[in-house]
Amino acid sequence: MSLLELERVSYRYPSGVRPALTDVTLEIGAGELVVVAGASGSGKSTLLRVACGLVPHFHGGEFGGRASVAGMDIRQHPPGELAGAVGTLFQDPESQIVMGTVRAELAFPLENRGLPPGAVARGVEEVALALGIAHLLERSTATLSGGELQRVALGAALACRPALIVLDEPTSQLDPVAGDELIASLRRLNEDHDATILLAEHRLERCLAAADRVLVMDGGRLACDAPPDAFLDWAVAEAPALATPGARLLAGAGLRPVAGVKAARAQLRAHGLLERPDTGTERCARGPLEAPDTGTGRCAHDPLGAPDTDTQPCAHDPLETTENAGNAASASVFPGPLDRPSEAGRNLAAPTRRLPTLARGRPPDAPRRRLPTLARRRLPAIADRLPGPLRRGPSADTGRRPSPEPGLALHLEHIWHELREGPVLLRDVSLAVRPGERIALMGGNGAGKSTLLRHAAGLMRPTRGHLVASGRVALLLQSPTDYLVHDTVAEEAPAAALHAVGLAPGTFAHRHPRDLSGGEKQRLALATVLGDPAQEPPAVVCLDEPTRGMDRPRKAELAALLKRMPAAVIVATHDPEFVAGFAQRVLLVADGAIVADAPVAEVLCGGTYFATETARILDGRALTPERGVELLRRLEVAL
Amino acid sequence: MAYCLALAGAALVLSAPLALGAVTLAVGLAALSAGVGGQIRRAAAFALGLGVLVMVINALVTRDGLTVIWRFGQVPGLGQLDVTLEATAYGAVLGLRAVALVLCAALYTSAVDPDEVLRLFRPWSFRSALTATLATRLVPVLARDARRLADAQRCRSGRPASRFQLMRAATAGALDRALDVAAALEVRGYGVARRPSGQREPYSRHDRAFLAAAAALLATAIAMRIAHLAPFTAYPALRAPLPAGELVLSAALVGCALLPFADRRGIVR
User: Fold this and answer.
1) Do residues A600 and A585 lie in contact, with contact meaning Cβ atoms separated by under 8 Å?
2) ∠ Cα A313 A608 A364 (to 5°)
3) How far is B174 from chain A (nearest CA, A)?
4) Which of A111-115, A371-375, A633-637 has the lowest mean pLDDT?
5) Domain segments of chain A: what residues?
6) Separation of alpha carbons A86 and A28, rounded Å
7) Which of A72, A485, A540 to mutate to test the interface with B (most CBs of B within 10 A)?
8) What is the rounded (10 degree) CA torsion for A276, A281, A287, A292?
9) A-B interface: how many C-beta pairs under 8 angstroms?
10) Euclidean distance between CA atoms B55 and B47, whole angstroms
11) Res. B198 pLDDT band, cuts 50 70 90
12) How far apart, in whole angstroms, are the C-alpha atoms of residue A128 and residue A138?
């Protein structure tokens, strides 16, 4: 039985110049988990808004064709009436929470249906238990994190036990952990409760493995409607921007793309390109031709069997080292004793060679541990025992010092930010950023990434420690529209800045900023913070979550743009695929402290959540599909 | 809510310094017992300033009272300006009342759940009550939006935007936010919201205790007023006796306010 039926549906928004949907016909059956893919502006959100009745009732506009949900024609039934059959979750959790406490929020849709208090209380308990948010019931919604808010909003959407659940990029504002938890919750609802789910998502690698079908929207038309594996086949041939990294990896190696890490690994194993899982304690599987482990208990790195002379575990692929060295070389020249290609992006947590090694609590030549969390937690205690200028401690001279360390674009020295009546936002953060360096800040929601960027840009002052920049620090915050206050693009930023971000003044100068697409707004906002490059070029450019809600081509454009910048660039992001394509060095932030500071390959190959799909498929031997393909081809030749 | 209203009512009914002090003390102790002492402390910092301002203004503008304590002489525009003991004392009483009222409001906003208030008024005027609740909830959200906008403007290079441009951007942002919230309300079934069923959740033991305390507080205050048990006269000469009855009833006010907190069973702090 079809739960959602669209027959030749076309729709144009009241202010739209062209239709948002054109002649869309589809059926979704009960119990299906359907992913809606497509570029930004392709019609995904509009399709979802048809399913919940907001189109046409809430938005107005011209609607043609026929659409029904659970047997109700959406033109005859407003969203409020459809709410019993359709639960809806949007992108921004903040705008979906209307009540003061979690319990009241979950009760709200039930009370709107006029249920008696007993039924409301039961409904609230059931949905809270189903989503694992029972412990939040008495919490004020103002105190919840982004991930918690999104789960509460999902709970409110599910409270009436709808037959169809519609979700519009629900993970775009969540960190990988919270995003994966949300997808897992949806999968459980689909498998255990037979819920029908319609999910629009840009990061397809997150959800394809759980999907039954994929719908692809392109210019308002339905371009593809197929099971995940068939969709990947189609995407590799017809729309490479939609192909997941895993699909590109397998297709590049001449194999049929499949959805999900597990299936991709099985595919590689079936072709002898990946060994069966180890039964021992070692984490990584090795390539078939790999040299025997030397007994260190760590992974051997070179898939061609070269002895592992690098002391750094899980910098597996020699190709990756080359890649990072290349990035470093192309970005800038590191002066002084650190100017070694293989060390690019490493050992830069402090201005001198002495500080990083001591502050990290290890002798200069000792092997580095992967993600040395414990060592870094002890950092304050270690630093207290250091002599002279390395000693950390209360200082009356907090904030910026007048002269920067030579050769550094930005230098943070033992930065603390402690609230008078609240938590510690930053804990003893030391960081040295060289000109031209490209750094990614990763970590969970609320870990302190944004706070760190705000300190760098001078929006917040540290309660202890020093911060020095060699010039202006430009900061692009999460919402680009906050920067855009004028009537034309030309008024927002000088022509040179527009040119620098790829907005040709001739084309864009007279357009209204709010009429630009999401990616163009982002570029314009970046231009407003960069300013005229001839007058005061920034020494450091910081961007806070710039890839939220972006499709893959726009992310690639942004990465290319940032790579061209002469200034040092620091990007806070949750997106490991973006990091792999942009950064040289990754700082992992947790609870206000930097818990790992290492080259991209080391962090993204060794992590579970903070890892690219390619790294997860290949046990961390390559970060990007292109490198992975190269590696697999070499393995094939060796075999 | 009734408890906070009763405390505010007592502050409005009483005018003797001791009794008003007892009400203020009761609000402070109730806030501490409710675990919202921090919020009340912040409100008190504002309220004390307001109280002093009220006292100073009253002392400067009131010409009543026989005991001159400061002569400013001829002040241009104001004429002869004398500050009297009576006007200062009455100003202090007015200031104390203002402090008590601000603290009552702070206790209400920090200790009373707006969702419960919405539930209470839902049978009579659901949409108005929801609008009020949304407004309460969206104030901090919009304040955060405004801070974000201000931060973004600080990050801009070059000439800062004018106030008009900022105002326009803030309005556009607030309207966008309102549109999103409206869409969320629609898909949660607000558009077809029905009047709730007649059944109501029973009052808990604590609800009853606070209702009783509210009634006792208000009754005590009204009794003190009617029976002149807390006499205070400011003009023309200051007269503020301290009868035993006022002492006892002031202590009773504090006791009434704190009694509901004696039973902590079933309360998680």
Assistant:
1) yes
2) 30
3) 11
4) A371-375
5) 2-252
6) 13
7) A485
8) -130
9) 164
10) 12
11) low
12) 11
In the three-class reduction of DSSP (H, G, I as helix; E, B as strand; rest coil), residue A101 is classed as strand
Q: Is B19 left (phi over 0), alpha (psi -120 to 50) or beta?
A: alpha
Angstrom distance (rounded) from CA A336 to CA A504: 39
- Amino acid letter, residue A135: H
Per the document, the length of chain B is 269
What band does A286 get if pLDDT is binned at 50, 70 and 90? Answer: very low
- CA angle (A41 as vertex; A18, B152 as ends), nearest 5: 120
Chain B CB contacts of A142 below 8 Å: 137, 140
Q: How many CA atoms lie within 13 A of B57 on its CB side?
A: 8
Q: Is A479–B152 a contact, with Cβ atoms under 8 angstroms apart? A: yes
Cα distances (Å, whole numbers) of residue A313 to A300, A302, B196: 8, 11, 63
Q: Where are the alpha helices (DSSP H) in A332-398?
A: 354-359, 373-377, 379-384
Q: Is A150 on the interface with B (CB under 8 A)?
A: no
For the segment B62-78, the average pLDDT, to the nearest whole number, is: 82
CA distances from A105 to A97, A166, B76, B126 (A): 7, 18, 60, 15
Q: Is A421 on the interface with B (CB under 8 A)?
A: yes
- Let me know if A608 is exposed, middle or buried by CB neighbors in 10 A (0-12, 13-18, 19+): exposed
Q: What is the 3-state secondary structure (H, E, C) of A433-455?
A: ECCCCEEEEECCCCCCHHHHHHH
Smallest Cα distance from A90 to chain B, Å: 8
pLDDT tens digits for range A302-340: 333 333 333 333 344 434 433 443 343 333 322 333 233
Q: Given this structure, which CATH class describes domain A2-252? A: alpha beta
Bridge partners of A63, per DSSP, are: A11
Q: Which two tokens stand for residue A556?
A: 């690639």
When CB atoms are compared, the residue of A81, A118, A529 closest to B192 is A81
Each domain of chain B, given as residue ranges in start order, spans 2-112+239-262, 121-191
b/e A163-185 (16+ beta carbons within 10 angstroms → b): bbbbbbbbbbbbbbbbbbbbbeb
Q: Rounded to whole angstroms, how far apart are CA atoms B173 and B156?
A: 18
Angle between helices A146-158 and A117-131 (to 10 degrees): 130
Which residues lie closer than 8 Å to A482 by C-beta, 6 or more apart?
A525, B148, B149, B151, B152, B153, B169, B173
Tell me if the bond preceding B236 is cis, omega within 30° of 0.
Answer: yes
- CA dist A52 and B185 (Å) reads 12
The predicted complex's ipTM stands at 0.72
Most A CBs within 10 A among B126, B162, B177, B188, hence the mutation to make, goes to: B188
The residue written with tokens 């604590």 in the block is B206
Q: Does A95 touch chain B (CB under 8 A)?
A: yes
How many Å separate Cα A176 from the centre of its chain?
A: 7
Average pLDDT, chain B: 85
Range A375-393 average pLDDT: 34
pLDDT digits (tens, 9 = 90+) for A544-598: 988 887 888 888 888 998 998 889 999 999 889 999 989 999 999 999 999 999 9
Neighbours of B95 (CB within 10 A): 23
User: Binning pLDDT at 50, 70 and 90, where does residue B194 land?
Assistant: low
Q: Which of A98, A160, A529 lies nearest to residue B185, judging by beta carbons?
A: A98
Whether the pTM exceeds 0.90: the reply is: no
